[in-house]
Amino acid sequence: MRGALAEPPAMNENFDAVLNGVNAALTTGSVSVPNTFTNGTTADADQVNANFTALETGVNTALANRATDCAGAGGTWDPGTSTCTAASNYNCFVAGFCAQAAIDYPPASYAYPNVYEGHTQGTEPALGAGCNSSPGSLLWIDGETLLFSFPPFIIYPFCPLCPPLCQ
């Protein structure tokens, strides 16, 4: 059975729609199709196939770049699920400081907000941010020890940096 003839403007619109989607996914240049079809002319199969080949190459390029694009944005690529986990804005240094401050200066007793209360290097969200392995673990430890490294902490019976940092 022979299929119906496609209208050239409809074919062009279909290629344009796919191109727009592929180009939105690409980060390295854009894709174009080599052939445009005109009303009243027959679309040559080689030209139609060349357009599909250009689209296929664009899609494959976009798929191949996903891992690189994810890593470039600071994310973590999971090839098993083909997903990118966004970069964390969790700061291991601040978390180490504030988690230790919550122990030594309990927020309830010293009346300041501390969103890091109860956080440890080995639990989420610190674990997911890499605070349990280098260099994140070193940042966490530096944050913990900062609490007692400056003379103001010896003089003051409270944590003056806690309210601005830990909320």
Note the total helix count: 7
Overall shape: it is rod-shaped
For the biggest sheet, the summary is: 2 strands, antiparallel
Multimeric organization: single chain
Could you provide a short overview of the structure?
The protein is mainly alpha-helical and 167 residues long. The protein has 7 helices and 2 strands.
What does this structure look like?
This protein has 167 residues and is mainly alpha-helical. The chain folds into two domains: 8-75, no CATH class; 92-165, no CATH class. Helices cover 49% and strands 4% of the residues. It has seven helices and two strands. It has helices spanning 8-25, 45-72, 92-104, 107-110, 136-146, 152-155, 162-165, and strands at residues 76-78, 83-85. Strands 1-2 form a two-stranded antiparallel sheet. A hairpin with a 4-residue loop joins strand 1 (76-78) and strand 2 (83-85). Helix 1 runs parallel beside helix 2. The model has no long low-confidence stretch (mean pLDDT 76).
Main traits of this protein?
single chain; 167 residues; mainly alpha; 2 domains; two-stranded antiparallel ribbon; 7 helices; 4% strand; rod-shaped
Summarize the helices and strands and which ones pair or pack.
Elements: H1 8-25, H2 45-72, E1 76-78, E2 83-85, H3 92-104, H4 107-110, H5 136-146, H6 152-155, H7 162-165
Antiparallel strand pairs: 1-2
